[in-house]
C-alpha cells in the first residue's frame, strides 16, 4: 500500500484540513462576533442531539498545535504498521467509529460523574483524535499473535479475559493522564481496540487485496 492509498496519510490530511478550518473559524468569531461558532462546529458536548455532526468532526479536530502534533506522532507510529493488514476503508471506518464512541463516552459518563458528585470532576466536552488513535494501539495489543498464543495457552474464560482487558485499559489510561486529558475517552478507545483486536475486526475478507508481506500478523 503506497502513500497515495494510505489511510494513515488520509487521516493526517484530514487532521490538517480540519485544523485550518478551526483557525479560520476562530478568525470569523473574532471578526464577525459569531459567538459559539467554533464550539458549534467542532466540540462534542451535551446535549449531543443539539450538534450531532460534532460526533464526527470532533474526532479530527484538535485544541492546539501541541495537541495536533502529539496525536499526529502517535498515529504515525501505529498507523503505517496496522494499515498493512487491513483495507483502506476498514481503517477509516474503525478510526471514525472508535473515535466517535470514545468521545460520546466522555460526554455521557463525564456528565453522569459530574452530576453524581455535584461538580466538574472530569470534562464533559471533548475534541481530538486520541480516543481513535489509542483504539489502534489497543487493536495491535489485543490482536497480535503473541497475545493470541498466550490467551489460548492459558485457556482463560471470557470473564477473566474481559477483566484483563479492563485492567490493561486502566493502566494505559493512567499512563496518558495529564491535566485536560479526556481520560474516559482514552479508556474507551483502548478497550474498544482491545476487543476489536481479539475479534479480528480489521481483518479483510480472504479475497481482499492487502500487503502480502504482512499476512502473518495474526
UniProtKB/TrEMBL annotation:
Annotated TM spans: 12-39, 59-82, 89-109, 121-142, 154-175
Primary location class: membrane
GO CC annotations on file: membrane
Ranges where the Peptidase S54 rhomboid domain occurs: 52-199
Bilayer disposition of the protein: Multi-pass membrane protein
Subcellular location: Membrane
PANTHER family named among the record's database cross-references: PEPTIDASE S54 RHOMBOID DOMAIN-CONTAINING PROTEIN, RHOMBOID-RELATED PROTEIN
Name of the protein in question: Rhomboid family intramembrane serine protease
Amino acid at each position: 500500500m503506497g502513500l497515495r492509498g494510505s489511510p494513515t496519510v488520509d487521516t493526517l490530511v484530514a487532521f490538517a484540513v480540519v485544523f485550518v478550518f478551526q483557525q479560520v473559524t476562530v478568525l470569523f468569531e473574532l471578526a464577525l462576533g459569531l459567538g459559539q461558532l467554533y464550539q458549534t462546529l467542532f466540540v462534542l458536548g451535551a446535549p449531543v442531539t443539539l450538534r450531532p455532526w460534532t460526533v464526527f468532526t470532533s474526532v479530527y479536530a484538535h485544541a492546539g498545535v501541541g495537541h495536533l502534533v502529539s496525536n499526529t506522532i502517535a498515529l504515525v507510529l501505529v498507523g503505517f504498521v496496522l494499515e498493512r493488514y487491513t483495507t483502506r476503508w476498514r481503517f477509516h471506518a474503525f478510526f471514525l467509529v472508535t473515535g466517535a464512541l470514545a468521545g460520546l463516552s466522555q460526554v455521557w459518563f463525564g456528565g453522569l460523574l459530574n452530576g453524581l458528585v455535584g461538580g466538574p470532576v472530569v470534562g464533559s466536552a471533548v475534541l481530538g483524535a486520541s480516543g481513535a488513535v489509542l483504539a489502534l494501539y489497543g487493536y495491535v495489543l489485543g490482536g497480535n499473535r503473541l497475545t493470541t498464543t498466550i490467551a489460548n495457552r492459558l485457556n482463560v474464560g471470557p470473564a477473566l479475559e474481559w477483566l484483563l482487558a479492563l485492567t490493561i485499559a486502566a493502566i494505559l489510561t493512567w499512563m496518558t493522564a495529564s491535566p485536560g486529558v479526556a481520560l474516559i475517552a482514552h479508556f474507551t478507545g483502548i478497550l474498544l481496540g482491545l476487543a476489536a483486536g481479539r475479534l479480528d475486526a480489521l481483518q479483510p475478507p480472504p479475497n481482499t487485496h492487502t500487503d502480502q508481506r504482512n499476512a502473518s500478523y495474526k
